[in-house]
Amino acid sequence: MTTDDSAAGEHADSLDRIALDLQDLRENAGPVSYAELVRRITDLRLHRGVRAAAATPARSTVYNAFRIARSRMDPELLRDIVVALGADDTAADAWVQRYRAVRRREAGRSLPEPPSAAQPVPRASRRVRMPLLVGILCACVVVNLLGLSVTSLFDLSLYLDMIGTAIAALALGPWHGVVVAVASSSLGFVTGDPHTWEFTPVNVVGALVWGYGVRRLRMGASLGRFTSLNLLTALACSLVAAPIVVMVFRGGAGHASERSMLALEAMQLPFVASVFSANIVTSATDKLLTGFIALFVFTLLHRSFGVSAQHMPLVEKIAALRSGDRVGALRAVGR
Predict the structure, then answer these.
(1) pLDDT for res 327
(2) Choosing a second label site near 285 at 20 to 30 A (CA), which of 30, 81, 159, 187?
């Protein structure tokens, strides 16, 4: 980009033109891989005194800056990208001024502001979003049913019936998790388990705790907080599951975890206390495993399909592990 080019086409300039010029700048600089670009931006920010936890941008965020059909860009990130590609501060400032001129002109035309800068919604992509959403939800239901089948086949003292619920609740929202919970509980009979419907409330509670936990309570901000969220989910699920086991099944629903309950009863522990104690121990192990599997899958969805992770910074921090600054990203994951 040159000053003459910018001035000559000022009235016709657009965010698409800026993105295309940014692509040319990257190609002329090497081209520079996105991983390398993330590393350079991280170094620039650390040099400016930015905390390590905030210095590394997600690779997908940097990649999105080069995409056309955007409705907004982060001017600070734009400046960092231009400098990281070899331009000096004066040239970088010119890029930012160019972007702001386009935004002012668009504001003068009363263009609506998009709901999210990181997730633009161009008209051509609206047809893709719904199939992707439906596909993720259907896959989550299948994952829940597979978990039930594996538990039954190997007689495991785990449940594994909420992995899909956790994925949907964390990545898409609590009520998407509820949809998966109800659907998989309704179809549980196909796995040979006739009692999944009775435990629908447990699955629903798990979806709500996971989903609202990362959105309202910010429990997806760090590894420690996310671990606590999984334990909180285990407690909430046990508080709902134990009364169902006691009142509907009289303590025996045919699950392998009943062996622990019988062992506790043999130690003269009251029946209700035995049921709850056995359930909470199994649930804690199960929800920790389930939660971290869901975290891994959410990270893949974020990287591969651009599923927003703004409500769960831990996902973006893990995604940054693919960049050059692995040490800074590892430190950020724990914060």
Answers:
(1) 46
(2) 187
Give 156's DSSP letter: -
Banded model confidence at residue 245, pLDDT cuts 50, 70, 90:
confident
Q: Tokens for 43? A: 């170094």
DSSP, collapsed to helix, strand or coil, labels residue 307 as coil
Rounded to whole angstroms, the Cα distance separating 127 from 94 reads: 36
Cβ contact 126:315 at 8 Å: no
Q: pLDDT tens for residues 58-80?
A: 888 888 888 887 778 888 898 99
Tens of pLDDT, residues 264-274: 555 656 667 77
Say how many CA atoms lie within 13 Å of 306 toward its Cβ. Answer: 17
How far is 251 from 273, CA to CA, in rounded Å? 11
Task: Check if the beta carbon of residue 295 is closer than 8 Å to that of residue 314.
Answer: yes
Helix, strand, or coil here: 250?
A: coil
On whether the CB atoms of residues 229 and 196 are closer than 8 A, the answer is no
Closest CA to 217 of 287, 208, 167: 208
Confidence of residue 202 (pLDDT cuts 50, 70, 90): very high
120 neighbors 69 (Cβ within 8 angstroms): yes
